[in-house]
Amino acid sequence: MRNVLQIVLAEDDTERQEELRSYLETYGGYSVAATKYIRTVQQLIEETNAAWLVLDLELEDGNATEIVGPLREKFGSTLFILILTGYWERFPEQQLIRGGADIVLRKPYSPEALVQQLGKIRRSWAGGNPRSGYKLENITICDGVLNLSEGIFKKGGRQVRFTNQQRILVEILAQALSDGPNTRIGRGEIISNLYGRTDDMLEMKRHGDRLRAMIVRIRKLTGCDEFVMNERESNNSSWYSFGGNPTIMTQE
After folding, report:
1. Which domain CATH number covers 31?
2. Does the N terminus or the C terminus of the chain have fewer Cβ atoms within 10 A?
């Protein structure tokens, strides 16, 4: 399993490189190995076991588009390749995606937005992102064990089956723990993962009601209150978290 807290950053602008590195390490909690050269990118990925490559296309020794395909072929789905570029006409997004990139972001792109983007991607892996390279397997909570692949929670001599959406919700909250204990996730973000993005306020309210009812149901199924809700009238200020100290098991 590759290290999801390790990033290889390839950026030729020294000042920009240091800005991104500092923010990723200070506010994202990542370890960053940086380079200005195409020729050292693969070496750094291998040495650090990084799960992320943040790649500027124009590096000191040439155009980095040439290494995206070979890196995808070598590391497969275990490496997430995020490209930062201002050259959209020269390097169309879909061409880069077809060549092996996962996401293409247009510069200028703030360090704050990059940290938020990486956090969202990590949490989306719980919903089955094909680039994850690993998946959550079992979660032990309140003296019971939830098998995520089967969606079955066992506690004592009884077992109950989770619906697919209940399972995904638990995965999202559990995956967020990699960002730190009691990590809070906004209601809007969870709704987007479960039901899809919407700007319709009435539909958002309906989804919020479903989500609230789902957490109450999960509490009854598991017999514990590890699932924390902080509901507010404003969708932007409502959040959810996975409290307590659950044990997270992963598999390759």
Report:
1. 3.40.50.2300
2. C
